[in-house]
Structures are given as C-alpha cells and as structure tokens.
Amino acid sequence: MRYFILYLKGMLMGAADLVPGVSGGTLALITGIYKELLESINAVSLENFKLLKTKGVLVVWKKINGPFLLAVFGGIISSILLLSRLLEWLIENEPIGLWSFFFGLLIASILYLSKSELTLKPLNILYLILGGLISFLVTQLNGGSNQSSLWYLFLSGFIGISAMILPGLSGAYILFIMGVYQTILSNVRQAQDLLFEFDQDKFILVASILGVFILGIVVGLKVFSKFLSWLLNRYPERSIAVLIGLMFGALHKVWPWQNKVVDTIDKSYAVLPSEYSGGNPEILTAIIFMVLGFLILFLIEKSKAIISR
Asked: From the CB of residue 50, how many other CB atoms can be counted at a distance below 10 Å?
C-alpha cells in the first residue's frame, strides 16, 4: 500500500512538472516525501555502487532506498507519458478550471506548511520574503526563442530539474523561459508515436534530443539535491521559510484569470475576474476547483497517516 501511494504522489509530481507555473517540488513537499526524496537521490552514489561486488544487489538496492525511488520516479514518468496530451489540452481549452485547482492546492499548501513547519521568528520571516522575491522575479522573465542545440538542451535539463525539485519554482516555466519547452513536449509526443509507428531517422533524432536532455536532468538532480539536503539538515527552518516563500511568490502565475500583455505572445499578468479579457470568467467553476484543490491537501495528509502505519 505504501508504494502504491508513493507511485500516486509521483504521478502528481509528474503532472505538476508538465504545467508551466506549477512545481513538482511543491507536491513532494506537501505530500511529505521531499526530504526522503532528496536523501534517496543522494544515496545513489559511486561509493554505494562499489558495494555491488562485495555486498550484492539487494544490499545496494536497500542502501539507495530503491523501492522508494522506483515508486516515485515510476509515477513521475508514467504521469508525463500518460498526461502530457491531456494537460496540454486542459491548458488550451479549460485553463480557468485547471489553474483554479492548482491555485487552491497551493494556497492550502502554504497555509499548512506555515502552520506545521515554520515558527514566525524575525529571521524566518526575512527568509520567507527573500524566497517570495526570488520566485516573483524569476516568473517575470520572458520566454526565449526556441533552442535545440544539444549542449543547450543539456544545460536546459540541468537548470530545469533544479527548478522542478524546488517548491514554488516551476521547471516547466524555466524550460519555457529558456525556449525549449515546446521542443521537449513535442519530442515526448513523438516518442510516444514511435511506439506505434517506428521510423529509424525520427527515432535517432528524438533519442538524441531527449537523451541529452535527460542526461542534463540526471546530472542536475544529483548536484542540486545534495545542496538542498545540506541546507535542510543544517538550516531546517530557514530553508523551509525560503521554500514557502518560493511557493508564495509563484501564486500570481497560477491565478486563474490572466490577461495577455499587448504585443506579446506568451506574457500575461493576473487580473480580477471582472477585468478578465479572455471571455467568460467562469467564476463558479473557478470556486469549485479552488475548493477541490484545497480539499485535496487533506486527502494527501490522510495518505501520510496510511503510509506511517
């Protein structure tokens, strides 16, 4: 039961990482697996793999917390493969409902974590504000032009995964800023199509693009998770304050009502429903999905209790 729930949490992380403005790290933090995830990634080391000769596979598998990693990353990968088309459709056709859900979930997460993980000391408040400012400034950056050179894709994977495991900073949004979001999403779809209609030339192209990007992810994940684990162990309250601040600073990006900036394609800003220029503001739909997102947090908290049994 524990690993099935971990798999579902991994799916939530994967779904969040697909959406520009939402962070898989946020879902890991509020589902209670964030610290274990960082520690397990750090355990995947050359030192532990050297034990294969003397201790055997089972000992090494246990040392790197293999069942946990398999369940979580299995969920993430499954979610990306299964939900990429659905989420792309929802972003295009049902944006208010989708963003309302994530907004409600994020608000509930901030309130819960502030109450359970944070004491309102002056220094913690300062770090919370700092995290909020960093997140807000990052989300003000404009999207770059599309880039597809292999070295740039490696760099994008390295930087993107760093944001994906940081609550509040959306890895998908960072990829959008760097101009590779559509490239990666398109190649994931093409990889799915190749399963049903194989083409050797297309396979080589897709494999090279996704392979280099994934290599960047692996390297970035290893480097950045070690740094985050060190921060959480050495400065737990300050680190949590910054992480909550990052989530708070990203709230405006998941606000359901966004108006496009004139003379730009992808730049937008949050407005009140009465000022929304995108058609029907669907206020009732937004409220329902905000409440649903808010309530999801309590289901997540119940799942923690089940896992701890």
From this structure: 11
Give the domain extent around 295: 2-308
Contact 21, 251 (CB under 8 A): no
CB atoms within 10 A of CB 299: 8
Kindly state the tokens that stand for 270: 């949050």
Element (H, E) at 309: none
- 33: tokens are 């697996």
pLDDT in tens, 251-287: 887 889 988 876 655 577 889 999 998 889 999 999 9
Give the H/E segment covering residue 49: helix 46-49
Q: Quick one: tokens of 95? A: 């944006």
Nearby residues of 108 by Cβ (< 8 Å), 6 or more positions away: 293, 294, 295, 296, 297
* Distance separating alpha carbons of residues 2 and 10, to the nearest angstrom: 12
Q: Are 51 and 59 in contact (CB under 8 A)?
A: yes
Q: Nearest 5°: CA angle at 71, between 68 and 76? A: 120
List beta partners, residue 268.
260
Q: pLDDT tens, 277-293?
A: 888 999 999 999 999 98
Answer yes or no: are the C-beta atoms of 228 and 38 closer than 8 Å: yes
Quote the CA–CA distance of 114 and 102 in Å, as a whole number. 18
pTM: 0.69
Nearest CA-CA partner of 134 in 153, 95, 162, 96: 162
The residues that bridge with 269 in the sheet, in sequence order, are 259
Number of structural domains (the chain) is 1
Rounded Cα gap, residues 30 and 138, in angstroms: 22
CA angle 293, 143, 135 (to 5 degrees): 50
